[in-house]
Amino acid sequence: MTYVERVLNDIIAKNPAQDEYIQATTEVLHSIEPVLDAHPEYEANALLERLCEPERIIIFRVPWVDDKGVTHVNRGFRVQYNSAIGPIKGGIRFHPSVNLGIMKFLGFEQIFKNSLTGLPIGGGKGGSDFDPKGKSDREVMAFCQSFMNELYRHIGANVDVPAGDIGVGAREIGYFYGQFKRLTGSYEGVFTGKGLTYGGSLARKEATGYGLVYFTNEMLKVKNDSFEGKTVLVSGSGNVAIYAAQKATQLGAKVVAMCDSNGWIYDAEGVDLAAIKEIKEVKRARIKEYVNYRPNAEYHEGKGIWSIPCDIALPCATQNELHLEDAKMLVANGCRIVAEGANMPTTLDATQYFLDNGVAFGPGKAANAGGVATSALEMSQNSMRLSWTFDEVDEKLKGIMIGIHKNAYEASKEYGQEGNYVVGANIAGFQKVAEAMMAQGVC
Ligand code: NDP
After folding, report:
1. Residues 289, 258: Cα–Cα separation, whole Å
2. Are 155 and 162 in contact (CB under 8 A)?
3. Is pTM, for the whole model, over 0.90?
4. Which listed residue, 117, 183, 354, 389, has the most CB atoms within 10 A of its CB?
5. Which residues are 82's β-sheet partners?
6. Phi, psi values for residue 102, rounded to 5°
7. Which residues contact 341 (CB under 8 A, 6 or more apart)?
8. pLDDT (tens digit per residue) in 2-45
């Protein structure tokens, strides 16, 4: 039995109901096997066992009172996975599906993503099974304050710096920040994604989506191609999806479809992003309202966005939203590039199908790293007590995404799998963390 098989068997035995965590560790560990073979000292020092076990997991009660005076209790999580290369950094997710396995998969992926950015940030993730949909601002504030009443004692500018994720945007970060400040009396850069009036960075809101498109543009350049004239599908209609669609459109592509968890829209003339922003960012409504803005567009209830012919697919909604049958439809319809804006939106068999069928595939930990990279730029600005312009941040983001692409591509080449970004990103992300962990001794 190989070292990887032994570690994975142990993970499966110890974490029976954590499917997403098992999926993420399986993908990463198999793809770094050539590095492990070249470094027997990693096995001798139980490096993988230490890497796969979070430094600590905090699970806590979050009680709150709704507008009718009814008390509710949700579960809060913070997985501080690995701080070998810097303070913990990773988002907070509010979604009813949140559980320990999902938190651990996201935290595990975050270690490699953060490493790939080249910036000094460790990996973690947090969240709650709280559903912000349909809640009033006061209810969301009450929940965020209660969440922070426990979490504040575990975070800090040099310890752990959370950010947003699904269900956590500028509004929630504001409530967290206010409560943290009230509890600690400290005005420190303890969150990223903050509002611009209290330490936020320009271009942070756009960063994950823009970064995804910059990364995809590098994938296209390898093929001597560009976004110009391409038909693009973007799943989701949240923070990542909206700004991915915006940048792809700016680069000359036509985004013809987007979705939310209820259904998807198809607009052959190209999606009207002003309408999507009004529906999603202002009204917090459902995407089916889009047809009120564009009567010629179609709305379909349920899944199905991947059935539309396209050149490029950008899954930007959630984990495991693109299955093998979707991958088959995309390939049959001529899709040549898939890049993940969401974390692990593509199942393992669908990823393999893309790789086997010559589709260039950009995994989330590389392609969506622009968000966390810009969060690290927000931390730098906070430390220096200054603010960069939108263009300065955007230029740095572009440089970082070009660098991530280069590192992932070169690692894939070095290990004999040129253009396999899954292998390249995992290896490039792993190497720095592994070296730091070895240098710091058994801890
Ligand atoms: P948002 O909450 O802003 O948006 C999520 C979008 O995905 C919403 O439109 C939501 O629809 C849709 N969605 C959720 N579940 C499903 C589903 N099962 N089927 C179809 N659509 C669904 O989150 P973000 O845009 O911030 O995050 C999206 C993804 O990107 C996540 O995987 C996140 O981890 C990842 N990511 C985010 C980063 C960031 O900076 N925000 C950074 C790196 C990765 P609905 O409104 O109906 O819920």
Report:
1. 13
2. yes
3. yes
4. 117
5. 123
6. -70, -40
7. 208, 209, 212, 234, 236, 240, 241, 244, 314, 315, 316, 364, 367, 368
8. 999 999 999 999 999 999 999 999 999 999 999 999 999 999 99
